[in-house]
From TrEMBL:
UniProt xrefs under Pfam families: fn3_6, PA, Peptidase_S8
Keyword Signal carried by entry: yes
UniProt similarity note: Belongs to the peptidase S8 family.
Domain (Peptidase S8/S53) ranges: 62-494
Name under which the protein is recorded: Subtilisin-like protease fibronectin type-III domain-containing protein
Keyword line: Hydrolase, Protease, Serine protease, Signal
Taxonomic classification: Eukaryota, Viridiplantae, Streptophyta, Embryophyta, Tracheophyta
Amino acid sequence: MHVVVAACQRGAQFMIDISVQPLPSTLRPCLPCWPSYPTTTEFLHLSESSGLLRASRGALRTVISVIDSGVYPKDRARRSTLPSSATASLWEPSSSTKGTRLGSAASFVRVSLHGNRPLLSTKGTTGDGHGTHTASTAAGSAVEDASFFNYGKGRAVGVAPSARIAVYKACWTETGCKESDVLSAFDEAIADGVNVISISIGGGEGPRAPEFHNDTIAKAAFNAVRKGIIVSAAAGNEGPGDSTLQNVAPWLLTVGASTIDRRFLANVVLGNGETITGVSLYTGAPLSLGASQVQLVDGDFCSDGKLDASKVAGKIVLCGPSDYPRHTWKGDVVRRAGGVGAIIGGTVKYGRDILPAHHIIPATSISVYGYMKIQSYMTSQQGSATATMVYGQETSSAPRVSSFSSRGPNIRAPGILKPDVIAPGESILAAWTGEASPTGLDDDTRRPQFNIIYGTSMACPHVSGIVAMLREAQPTWSAAAIKSALMTTAYNMDNAGDVIKDATTRKASTPFARRADHVDPNRALDPGLVYDVRNSEYIAFLCTLGYTAEQIALFTRDGSVTDCSITTSKKDVTDLNYPAFSVVFKSDNDKVTQRRRVTNVGKFVSPTYTVSVTSPSGVRVTVNPPKLHFLGGPTTKRYELTFVAHGEDVTDKYTFGSITWSDGTYTVTSPVTVTWPDGDEEVAAAI
């Protein structure tokens, strides 16, 4: 049994009319009149008439490697293989690299595509949709009127619309992403001559980053970056706790997730008239206009097999919060027990943030605070509580740092601030597999061409598409220079003029959440100055961390033996030429000096840059020299920052600031984070 939903009225909201019907084989769209809302490419201000998209021609000659669970290549409904990727944008490898080569586990498969047919192997298809979604986000030409059953309806297009895609399947439903398969995928992508590698998986098995020599992606990406390939990697979905990041090696471009300016509402209207904000991706067959208040009952946590059908049949069931953010299964438990709707408390650690789920009955997710309000209302009604739901779509202040996006500090290298940037990763519409439903439930037979999902996995390919265009527009820049351009031109204000908020708390976010702030593709095209890094400096970085020659050989994999007594030319990992500053004080009167160099890549041959400093609380910051005079084009200048603690009265474990170099035209900004003594035991132990 399920509940059908009334047809919507003109406008952004409508009321559901609840009645019990058999579950149809295919749930039909119920939202025929919702307006189109801006896509993520529009949110990123990408325009064919100006800026990065025009300068790069959409990354026409660039190849993006997507290492993931593969793609769905079959042509369905006479549409493209990747619905947001036209056939002209899919890549055929050179003749010298054709043929499937297997990794040591005999399971890695490269599936480069041309048109709608795999050239190499059908084993590269995917059953979970993850790889299809990430690939079609990074690149692909436009498809009009794309939607998930009218949710997010509009023009779907890859971030780099002209780039070519090379898909490397290294993840499998049965075995996950084995180290041997990931390493093989990287090696093949390097050999195939790709320009960008996009990888939306973590480098370890736990919720936090492994040590670098045990980090599959850190090791695999090292040689790619040495060969000039930019590697964009997801930061992980273990937020909002501190030190939850994955992919924290400094040669990686680590991407956190942010919201865009749309939400899919499913608000709860209680019998007393109070409205509780909720969100949902429910789709169902329209029945009739109108609204009904339905009896509301408590289902505790709606555990499978625990609901009493005699008490919940024909009613809306309130389900308690849990630690697992995807709540679709709870709605299914309610449906099988005869309930006609579900109100599901959100994930406790996400605080005020709520994430929509693909429900197959009228159901909505609410915050833990909303859940407590409904509980209080139900107590006051003594068994006569009622509710209904109002579905709609709204624009909202954005970006915000997504609650699930993993946070710093970096426990493996506290002197390297991560993540590097944030990008759209919530409510992202992209192509989907024809082999899986959006819910994964046995009773859900829907096979949509597009799906809306969330995660740093979705943020990562947005940045991969951006760096592909930067690679095309600025072919002489190194991977580190491209990363620097993205970081120093990022912005920290939302569309309401406030500092980007943390979705968990609705308060201003910190650099540990948003890092160098939200990507701005058009500004990154012309950053003024860049912080470049030589390959030898990454080896020196590993030496400074105390890695042995044998451990470093796991990264270089070229037979060479590193002598750290010769290689290490710097005394501290914080001297790596990174476009950010992370300071860890050992006492309340400590002093730390960090050194950097910047290269002029701006349009002025002989600019003079002047520094301005926003000092973290309890810290005196001096910059020497305070002015940088460049002569003769792309020259390099050095400077150093000294941080002096006077933190006797500082009560926070972290304080934040920034430094900005400006010549009157360009502004080049780097965040500053300070960790105080006893502020983070794991960080302190890592120094």
